[in-house]
TrEMBL record, chains A, B:
<keyword id="KW-0119">Carbohydrate metabolism</keyword>
<keyword id="KW-0862">Zinc</keyword>
<feature type="binding site" description="in other chain">
    <location>
        <begin position="174"/>
        <end position="176"/>
    </location>
    <ligand>
        <name>UDP-alpha-D-glucose</name>
    </ligand>
</feature>
<feature type="binding site">
    <location>
        <position position="179"/>
    </location>
    <ligand>
        <name>Zn(2+)</name>
    </ligand>
</feature>
<feature type="binding site">
    <location>
        <begin position="333"/>
        <end position="334"/>
    </location>
    <ligand>
        <name>UDP-alpha-D-glucose</name>
    </ligand>
</feature>
<feature type="binding site">
    <location>
        <position position="128"/>
    </location>
    <ligand>
        <name>Zn(2+)</name>
    </ligand>
</feature>
<feature type="binding site">
    <location>
        <position position="53"/>
    </location>
    <ligand>
        <name>Zn(2+)</name>
    </ligand>
</feature>
<dbReference type="GO" id="GO:0008270">
    <property type="term" value="F:zinc ion binding"/>
</dbReference>
<feature type="binding site">
    <location>
        <position position="197"/>
    </location>
    <ligand>
        <name>Fe cation</name>
    </ligand>
</feature>
<feature type="binding site" description="in other chain">
    <location>
        <position position="62"/>
    </location>
    <ligand>
        <name>UDP-alpha-D-glucose</name>
    </ligand>
</feature>
<dbReference type="Pfam" id="PF01087">
    <property type="entry name" value="GalP_UDP_transf"/>
</dbReference>
<feature type="domain" description="Galactose-1-phosphate uridyl transferase C-terminal">
    <location>
        <begin position="198"/>
        <end position="363"/>
    </location>
</feature>
<feature type="binding site" description="in other chain">
    <location>
        <position position="340"/>
    </location>
    <ligand>
        <name>UDP-alpha-D-glucose</name>
    </ligand>
</feature>
<dbReference type="GO" id="GO:0008108">
    <property type="term" value="F:UDP-glucose:hexose-1-phosphate uridylyltransferase activity"/>
</dbReference>
<protein>
    <recommendedName>
        <fullName>Galactose-1-phosphate uridylyltransferase</fullName>
        <ecNumber>2.7.7.12</ecNumber>
    </recommendedName>
</protein>
<keyword id="KW-0299">Galactose metabolism</keyword>
<dbReference type="InterPro" id="IPR036265">
    <property type="entry name" value="HIT-like_sf"/>
</dbReference>
Length: 368, 368
C-alpha cells in the first residue's frame, strides 16, 4: 500500500540525465507574497534604426570600424572578446596543457591552463526594433544559414574544439543592446555544460546502445504530449521533465543528427519554423517581449568521433515567472544547495501550448 | 622555451577542485561599454521598526501568527516552505526511493523521488534597518548560537540528511524583505552542491590522505597572502583561486572541523568576528549595502561518517561588479557553456584587502 508519487502535488526531486544533476520541485507552493524588486518593463517603441546603436547598418563600432549596409545578417569579431586567438600559435602550443600557479605544489588545488578562442557577434537583422519572435521564417532561415557558415569556418581553425552559439535577449538577461543579435564563441576547450552532456550521453549509449535524446524524444511523443509545446516534421519543442527555469524549453531534432552542418534544406526550414513558433509563443505568455538566454548544443569539433554522444538541440532559458516584471532568482538554496522550482514543467508546457503561434502584435492584423 | 601562463593577462581556465568544475577567466578584457539595465539602488533610510514587516517583533505573519517581542534572534517555520514534513511518515517511507513517471519506461530518463523537509526562517535582529555588516560581534554570535541550536534540533529528526543554512541579502538577490534574516532548509536528501563537494573531498582524501580544504588553506596562507582577505586565530576569509563571482569569498575554519556543532566557544566568537569583518568590507567596497547569497557547508547528518570528506566553510556569492548598480549576469555562455569572469580573484582580493574593517557608516563616529 505505497503512496504513489504525485508529481502535481508532492515535493520531489527530478533527475536531469543530460547533465547528471537534480532539481527540486515544490508544486504545492501557493503564490507567495512579493515585496521585492520589480524589473523595469522593456521599452516598447524602439526606432527601426538607431544612430547610436553599434549594431545598426552603417554605424561605427567602438574600435572605429564601420558596419556595412547589411540586408540580412552580419557577423563581426567581438571587440571585447572573452577569449582570443594567440598571435604566436607555436608558443601557445608549447604552453598548453596543465599549468600550475606554483610548480612546487600539489597540482590539483591550483590548476589553470590557457584558453584560445574566437568570439563573434551575429546581427540577426538590420532592423533595430525587431526580435526573433517578429522575424519571418525566411529571416530566421538566414540566421541559421549564417550559423552554419560560421560553424564551417570555425571548424577549419585547428585549435577550435567547440563552437558555442548563443543569444541573450532582454536587459533582464544582461543584454546591453536591444538590436537583435547573438554570439558565437569558439574555444580551444569543450566548456563545462556540453562536456557534462557529452559524458552523460556517452554513458547512456554505452549502457543501452541508444542515443539518450532520441530515446527521450520518442518517449515524450508517446506520452499524451503533456510536455510537448509544439512540433513539425523535423523538430519537437518541449519543456524537459527536469527543467529548472519556469518556461524552459528544448528544441530537439527528430532525426539523429549531431550538428547544424548535418541539416538538410527541409530541416533548415523546419528549424526556422519551430524557432519562430516558440519565440512567438514566449512573447504571447505575458504579451510582452520575453527575455531568455538561448544556446545550441552540438558535437564538438575536436577531431574525435561524436556520433552517439551528441544530438543537435537548442536550450531556451527564460527567467520570467509570474508576469513581465517578476523573474525567478537562482540564489540562496539554488546556489548553495540545488535548483528549485514551484511551477511544474507540465504546468508550464500547458500554458505554452495554449499560447498562440501568432505573435500578439500581429493579432489585430491577422485573421488567425 | 615555453611561454609561461600569466594569470594576470592571458585568457585561461581555472579548476575548482571542490565542485570538480571549471571557470573561464578573461583578465585581458578592458571595461566594456554598458548600455544595459541599471539596478535600483537599495533604499537607504529604513525605519528601525516597520509595522508592515512580517519579520518585525510583535507583527502578524501571513498565516495569522504573531511574532514575539524577540530581543536577539527569532526562528519560525516558513509559511511557504519549498519542502515539508509528511504527516504520514509510514506511507512516505514506503513510497521513498526511485519512482518513475511511468513504470514501463527506461528508469533513467523520467526519474523522480519524493523529498521531505523543514524550512525555517531566522530573524537575525529585532531591528528592521540593520544588516549583518552593522551588527555587533555579540549579535552575530547570537545568530551563530541559533544556527547551532537549529542544527542540533534538525539532526534529531530521523528523515533529515542535510541542513542548509543560507541568507539572501538585497533585492538584487531576490530578497523580498530588508529585515535581516536567513533561512535553514533541512532535507531528506543531500543537495547537489554539497554532494559534489563531498564527492571531491572524498576522492582527494582517498588519494592524498589529507583534507582538501585543510591543504588548500595551508597553501593559501603560505602564498604571500595574495587571495587572503582577512583572518583571525580560528578562521581565514579568502577569494578562492576558482571563484566565479567578482567578489566571491570563502570563510574556512583553520582547525579541521566538519560542522558548526564542533565549534568551541573561542571559535564561535572568532566566527562572529570574521563574518563581521567580511560583511563590513563588502559594504565598504562601494560604500553601499552589498548584496549576496551566503551559505554554510558542513557535514551531512545522514548517519554516515564524514570526518574527511567535509570541512566547515561558508560561501559568499555577491553579484556586484563595477558599482552598486551594475551586477554580473550568469547568462548566455555561462548558462550554455561555463562560468566566466574578467576581474581576477587576485584583483578582487586586493580590493577587499584595502577596504576597511570598520563600516563606512561608522567612519564619522569612529577614530579608526
Ligand atoms: Zn541597432
Ligand atoms: Zn522588519
Amino acid at each position: 500500500m505505497s503512496l504513489p508519487l504525485d508529481l502535481t502535488s508532492h515535493p520531489h526531486r527530478r533527475f536531469n540525465p543530460l547533465t547528471n544533476s537534480w532539481v527540486l520541485c515544490s508544486p504545492h507552493r501557493t503564490k507567495r507574497p512579493w515585496q521585492g524588486q520589480l524589473e523595469v518593463s522593456p521599452t516598447i517603441n524602439l526606432p527601426e534604426y538607431d544612430p547610436k546603436c553599434y549594431l545598426c547598418p552603417g554605424n561605427t563600432r567602438a574600435q572605429g570600424e564601420k558596419n556595412p549596409m547589411y540586408k540580412e545578417t552580419f557577423v563581426f569579431g567581438n571587440d571585447f572578446a572573452a577569449v582570443k586567438v594567440e598571435t604566436d600559435i607555436g608558443r601557445m602550443n608549447e604552453a598548453e596543457g596543465e599549468a600550475n600557479d606554483e610548480a612546487d605544489e600539489a597540482p590539483s588545488l591550483f590548476l589553470a591552463h590557457r584558453v584560445q578562442g574566437v568570439c563573434q557577434v551575429i546581427c540577426y537583422s538590420p532592423s533595430h526594433n525587431l526580435t526573433v519572435a517578429e522575424l519571418s521564417t525566411t529571416s530566421i532561415l538566414s540566421i541559421i544559414t549564417t550559423w552554419i557558415a560560421e560553424t564551417l569556418s570555425a571548424q577549419s581553425l585547428p585549435f577550435v574544439k567547440y563552437i558555442q552559439i548563443f543569444e541573450n535577449k532582454g536587459s533582464m538577461m544582461g543584454c546591453s543592446n536591444p538590436h537583435p543579435h547573438g554570439q558565437i564563441w569558439c574555444t580551444s576547450v569543450i566548456p563545462e555544460e556540453p562536456a557534462k552532456e557529452l559524458d552523460s550521453m556517452k554513458r547512456y549509449h554505452d549502457k543501452c546502445n541508444k542515443c539518450l535524446l532520441c530515446e527521450y524524444t520518442r518517449m515524450e511523443l508517446g506520452k499524451k504530449l503533456e510536455r510537448i509545446v509544439c512540433e513539425n516534421a523535423s523538430f519537437v519543442c518541449l519543456v524537459p521533465f527536469w527543467a529548472i527555469w519556469p518556461y524552459e524549453t528544448m528544441i530537439i531534432s527528430k532525426r539523429h543528427i549531431t550538428s547544424l552542418v548535418d541539416l538538410n534544406q527541409e530541416e533548415k526550414i523546419a528549424l526556422a519554423d519551430i524557432i519562430g513558433k516558440i519565440t512567438r509563443k514566449y512573447d504571447n505568455v505575458f504579451e510582452s517581449s520575453f527575455p531568455y538566454s538561448m544556446g545550441i548544443h552540438q558535437a564538438p569539433v575536436d577531431g574525435e568521433e561524436h556520433v552517439w554522444d551528441s544530438h543537435l538541440h537548442i536550450h531556451f532559458y527564460p527567467p520570467l515567472l509570474r508576469n513581465p516584471t517578476v523573474k525567478k532568482f537562482l540564489v540562496g538554496f539554488e546556489m548553495l544547495g540545488e535548483p528549485q522550482r514551484d511551477l511544474t514543467p507540465e504546468q508550464a508546457a500547458s500554458r505554452l501550448q495554449q499560447c498562440s503561434e501568432t505573435h500578439y502584435k500581429m493579432k489585430s492584423t491577422s485573421s488567425q
